[in-house]
Design brief:
The protein is mainly α. 78% of the residues lie in helices and 5% in strands. Strands 2-1-4-3 form a 4-stranded mixed sheet.
Length: 245
């Protein structure tokens, strides 16, 4: 096996680990943003329910005030009826009282409707407040974990990049240039094993002479079809191991 083969394999392994860390670091803020967006939506829904409940209570208070005002008017009108001098004046007071009493009944009916509407709103608000409190704690915990994980990942990433620089410096410039080109073309899969006369990456059968040259390991070779670096790892012969023992 050509000596640069091990360097290429190690470099590919480092690049995979670096790529995985890069993805994780990029994914963490997106994950937190999704949680925060959901939290914000729940908060808006809670605010809408609170506003509806507040409007309900305001309407009930106004109607209760109207009823009180109508009752006061009725009381005054009844006092005035006692001083009515003609039947027309008496009937006029009576009609006004009847109108106010109808207004009171209408207001009371509406208050009952509002009370019925307020019950589910009140339940929703209480439930949402409890759930929102727990959700805020969860999001805060996730944010803390994300910050800690990002710091760990960045520290590990810096170390791996340092190792990569040292490793890349050991490869000949032409080999490193080929490595980077192949890595870009094949999404990180730069080197593959030749198994049973085939490239294990593209599964194309290799020429017999090519396989022989690859086995000699005198140079770092690439697959004639997919262009990836290839290496040959001879199988272990257990009989030879037994004889050697």
């Amino acid at each position: 096996m050509h000596p640069d083969t091990h360097l290429v394999i190690q470099l590919q392994s480092l690049d995979k680990r670096i790529g995985a860390l890069d993805k994780e670091i990029a994914a963490l803020p997106k994950h937190i943003a999704t949680l925060e967006k959901t939290l914000e939506a729940h908060l808006r829904r809670l605010e809408a329910d609170r506003a509806a409940l507040s409007a309900n209570q305001k309407d009930r208070k106004k109607l209760e005030g109207d009823i009180q005002m109508h009752e006061q008017k009725i009381s005054k009108l009844k006092d005035q009826m006692l001083g009515a001098k003609t039947n027309e004046q008496y009937r006029a007071f009576q009609h006004e009282i009847e109108y106010l009493e109808r207004e009171i009944r209408t207001a009371e009916d509406r208050i009952l409707e509002l009370m019925s509407e307020s019950e589910p709103l009140d339940v929703n608000v209480r439930k949402a407040e409890g759930a929102l409190k727990e959700e805020k704690q969860t999001v805060a915990g996730e944010q803390k974990l994300a910050r800690e994980r990002t710091a760990e990942d960045q520290a590990q990433l810096a170390q791996l990049r340092g190792e990569r620089s040292e490793l890349a410096a050991k490869l000949p410039p032409a080999t490193l240039s080929s490595y980077n080109r192949i890595r870009k073309k094949w999404n990180g899969i730069v080197i593959a094993e030749a198994v049973e006369g085939r490239c294990s990456a593209c599964q194309i059968v290799l020429r017999p002479q090519y396989v022989q040259d690859l086995k000699r390991g005198e140079e770092l070779m690439t697959c004639e079809v997919c262009g990836r670096f290839l290496f040959y790892n001879p199988p272990t012969n257990f009989e030879d191991i037994a004889h050697a023992g």
